[in-house]
From TrEMBL:
Subunit structure: Homotetramer.
Keywords carried by this UniProt record: Amino-acid biosynthesis, Methionine biosynthesis, Pyridoxal phosphate, Transferase
A Pfam match: Cys_Met_Meta_PP
Reactions that this protein is recorded to catalyse: O-succinyl-L-homoserine + hydrogen sulfide = L-homocysteine + succinate
Role: Catalyzes the formation of L-homocysteine from O-succinyl-L-homoserine (OSHS) and hydrogen sulfide.
Alphabetized InterPro entries for the sequence: Cys/Met-Metab_PyrdxlP-dep_enz (IPR000277), O-succ-hSer_sulfhydrylase (IPR006234), PyrdxlP-dep_Trfase (IPR015424), PyrdxlP-dep_Trfase_major (IPR015421), PyrdxlP-dep_Trfase_small (IPR015422)
Record EC number: 2.5.1.-
Organism: Neokomagataea tanensis NBRC 106556
Protein's name according to its UniProt entry: O-succinylhomoserine sulfhydrylase
Recorded metabolic or biological pathway in which this protein acts: Amino-acid biosynthesis; L-methionine biosynthesis via de novo pathway; L-homocysteine from O-succinyl-L-homoserine: step 1/1
Length: 397
């Protein structure tokens, strides 16, 4: 049977085996910085590209290649380049593509470091940038009515889980002559397929669901073979944004259980979100799988499930949020997400602390907002922990 006919769970284990002559069951780990040549002529031909072989692990490595190939097959992309971190993926994708005098449009709701790239870094290089509210369709139409090199969006967004209409934004982006780049971290590769919705480039922090066990950093950029090889690859090779072979091997192990983990985490998150909405001390709950999410119908159309992230707001602003977090005995305080263990953070003082207060308010990131990444624990234990937190928030005045 062709691998094209295999189901996802099978492909996560068996796609792109790339076995060595030793016939190992687990993927081989090539912990090497460089490679040797049979002759000076072979070395010269390798550097000119006349011979295709590995030359240096910053350029390519067998373990990293296996990870890239398997992730590309999973995503339905022609090619993939793995990077040292998720932010390495975002920065490389944008900086390799955009030039001085060109224009970048982005959704207003971005992870703090992505927001800094768009609003602080790109303008330093003479690149015009504009932010658009994610659900403002007229705003997107206006912003993309003139030439644009790239558009960057998150859907669902960090941390308040806005869901953006990827197909609509993709169509406008292409009319403006640009590429649509989608940060798909919150949905995960199995929760949403941006390329099928018209996106050109998909970005991941592999540190999140793909590893999913808090072990390593990594990122990935996926897109067409021509764009990856002609635009992105020269940039990453020459700037040194390479994933280590060891991290690639760990991420391959993460892919093997990705479907099991993300399905279970989404199932848990749906139960937890429903319970959170009933707890005294909790003012509001945002979860893409709930009917009361502002873009519930769009989420149902674009995503296979509601995902593992929940945003909720407690009483008494920052004092209430801190009391809630400090009352947890099971849920850990951490700014990571997509982990097998449930994690919670206070975005206003952590991931989005450098976003101006007025901008945070516009995004709905209040001082009482908490981002919860639901893990693999029994949901009843998580609900009990959240009940303690909500009670503590109520008493924090």
């Amino acid at each position: 049977m062709s691998s094209n006919n295999w189901k996802t769970a099978t492909r996560l284990l068996h796609d792109a085996p790339n076995r060595t002559p030793y016939g190992e069951t687990s993927e081989a780990l090539f912990l090497t910085s460089g490679f040797v040549y049979d002759s000076a002529e072979q070395a010269a031909a390798t550097f000119t590209g006349d011979v295709e072989r590995f030359q240096y692990s910053r350029f390519g490595n067998p373990t990293v290649d296996t990870f890239q190939e398997r992730l590309a097959l999973l995503e339905g992309a022609e090619a993939c380049i793995a990077t040292a971190t998720g932010m390495g993926a975002v920065s490389s994708a944008i900086l390799s593509h955009v030039k001085t005098g060109e224009r970048v449009v982005a959704s207003r709701a971005l992870f703090g470091s992505c927001y800094w790239i768009v609003t602080s870094l790109l303008p330093r290089y003479g690149i015009e940038t504009e932010l658009v509210d994610g659900d403002d369709l007229d705003g997107w139409k206006k912003a993309l009515s003139k030439p644009t090199a790239a558009v960057l969006i998150e859907s669902p967004s960090n941390p308040m889980l806005d869901v953006l209409d990827i197909q609509y934004i993709a169509d406008l982006t292409h009319k403006a002559g640009g590429l649509l780049m989608v940060d798909n971290v919150f949905a995960s590769p199995l929760g949403q397929s941006p390329l099928k919705l018209g996106a050109d480039v998909v970005l991941y922090s592999c540190t999140k669901h793909i590893d999913g066990q808090g072990r390593v950093l990594g990122g990935a950029v996926l897109g067409s073979k021509s764009w990856i090889t002609e635009t992105l690859q020269p940039f990453t090779r020459n700037t040194g944004n390479a994933l280590s072979p060891f991290n690639a091997w760990v991420l391959l192990k993460g892919l093997e259980t990705l479907q099991l983990r993300t399905d279970a985490m989404a199932h848990n998150a749906a139960k937890v979100a429903d319970a959170l909405a009933t707890l005294p001390g909790v003012k509001s709950v945002r979860y893409p799988g709930r009917a009361d999410h502002p873009q519930a119908e769009l989420a149902k159309k674009q995503m296979t499930n509601g995902g593992s992230l929940i945003a909720f707001t407690v009483e008494n602003e920052q004092a209430g949020a801190f009391a809630c977090l400090n009352a947890f005995s099971l849920i850990a305080i951490s700014n990571n997400l997509g982990d097998a263990r449930s994690l919670a953070t206070h975005p206003a003082t952590t991931t989005h602390m450098r976003v101006a207060p007025e901008e945070r308010a516009r995004l709905g990131i209040t001082d009482g907002a908490i981002r919860l990444s639901v893990g693999l624990e029994d949901p009843e234990d998580l609900i009990n922990d959240l009940r303690r937190g909500a009670e503590a928030a109520q008493k924090s005045v």
